[in-house]
Amino acid sequence: MNSNGWRKGMLILMSIGMAILFSSGFNLQDSPFVSPVSNIAPVAAQSHKISPEKLRLYEAQKQIERLETENAALIRFFKMEYYRILDRIWRRYGKEINSAGTRYKLDPALIAAVIAVESGGKRQATARHGEKGLMQLRPVICKLMQVDDPFDPEQNIRAGTRYLKQLLKEFDQDLPLALAAYNAGPTIVRHYKGMPPWIHTRYYVEKVLFLSQAS
């Protein structure tokens, strides 16, 4: 018999054997070569007598590692997106940002970071509570800072920077608390006597602080 005929014969025998196994009620999960928990090194697990609990822990750890890898990729994507936003903000509003930073003695990179997180650099941005413009000024802040047109980049950036400066003074130059107050309102920060427990506010603060270093 030539090699081709031998191979065909073996394939036929294997097919017949598999058909007999499955027709007799054989379950693949009953196989000694398949772990009841996962498919990771089942033979080695049996030979070293690893308990099902340890296998479950191993499987959980692998899942955590996979999620961490996926999250890291997602974080890299958002960082790249914000870098593009920051670049656009500096090209369009760099003059206004530097002017406000000099006037109120605030780091221009911090101002740009607030703009990036608040509005994504969109001068016509609005929000559900009436926030408007690049630094998302609330109506009460516009009135307090005598802003005639919150969609005007110069007025908006100047007023937002001045407001942030006042918050820094109120909270003893504690930048994270000042940013939390900018996001959630100073009344909320005073109520909690520190950083509010709100996830979105904490995330807001982290993003601005990160971007102010990257700007």
Commentary on this structure:
This protein is mainly α and 215 residues long. The protein has a domain at 81-214: Orthogonal Bundle (Lysozyme). It has 9 helices and no strands. Helix 4 packs across helix 9 (199-214). It is elongated. Mean pLDDT is 79; it is low at 16-47.
Distance between the termini: 75 Å
Q: In the CATH classification, which architecture of the domain at 81-214 applies?
A: Orthogonal Bundle
Low-confidence stretches: 16-47
Q: For the record, what CATH class of the domain at 81-214 applies?
A: Mainly Alpha
Sheet with most strands: none
- Helix proportion range: 55-70%
Mean pLDDT: 79
Count of strand segments:
0
How many H/I helices?
9
Order of helices and strands: HHHHHHHHH
Shape: elongated
- Secondary structural class: mainly alpha
Tell me the strand percentage band: under 5%
Round the Cα radius of gyration to an integer and report it: 30 Å
- The third-level CATH topology of the domain at 81-214 is Lysozyme
Describe what is shown at a glance.
The protein is 69% helix and 0% strand.
Question: Which tags fit this structure?
Answer:
215 residues, mainly alpha, Lysozyme, 9 helices, elongated
Secondary structure layout plus pairing:
Layout: H1 3-23, H2 42-47, H3 52-104, H4 108-119, H5 139-144, H6 153-170, H7 175-184, H8 186-192, H9 199-214
